[in-house]
Amino acid sequence: RDETARFIAVEQLSFSFGDKLSFENWLSSSANPAIRRIPRNTLKRIIHKLVATQKKELIKEFASLDNKVSLCSDIWSDHWQSCSYMRITCHWIDNAWNIQKRLLAYRCFNDPHTGQNISHLMFIILEEYGLTSKFFSISFDNASVNTCSIYELIRLCQPSMCGKFFHIRCTCHIFNLCVQDGLKSLELYIRPIKSAIHYLWTHPQVMK
């Protein structure tokens, strides 16, 4: 069951996947006749247990680290703007000089997006992993509230070199802002092209 749960989580399948009759038939015929379907709620409990186990192992590994780690974070809303999420990824070099990357948190974040709320949730996550004094820098978008949260994190965590290299501004976000500004200056020429394409898509008989 644990391996089935890992497979479903890694492949980002629905929790109901393990409860499908076709899945049970395939496993029982190709692997083990005794295998039965796994209910969705059971699968959810197994995955939560596996995540907790992996988190404990990661906390233990971080506790033995002598070097610093770097973080990357992002905040976004779903398609319907009904819920926001925060993701934090950790990067570091292990004793064998291999670059490691782990997802620390993927949290629902529906509080007002203020610098204080953002930094507070980040600090809680870092405390859970024992990283408040072990991270060197964080890559984050250039939004004003994100910049405010960085100042608050510097105050809370007291990073190396007084936080001089603490905030690594997201290159992709900068490029996107540049492109958006460039497109604004070309809007007079782009709008007729977009209108023509929209007309062709909405009138397929014209294409014939």
Describe the protein:
This protein has 208 residues and is an alpha/beta fold. It is 51% helix and 18% strand. Strands 3-2-1-4-5 form a five-stranded mixed beta sheet. Helix 5 (144-157) links the parallel strand 4 (135-140) and strand 5 (167-169). Helix 1 crosses helix 3 (40-63). The radius of gyration is 23 Å and the shape is flat. The N and C termini lie far apart (54 Å).
Summarize the helices and strands and which ones pair or pack.
Blueprint: H1 2-10, H2 21-30, H3 40-63, E1 69-77, E2 84-93, E3 99-108, H4 115-129, E4 135-140, H5 144-157, E5 167-169, H6 171-185, H7 187-202, H8 204-207
Parallel strand pairs: 1-4, 4-5
Antiparallel strand pairs: 1-2, 2-3
Helix pairs in contact: 1-3, 4-5
Keywords: Metal-binding, Nucleus, Zinc, Zinc-finger
Subcellular location: Nucleus
GO molecular function, one term: zinc ion binding
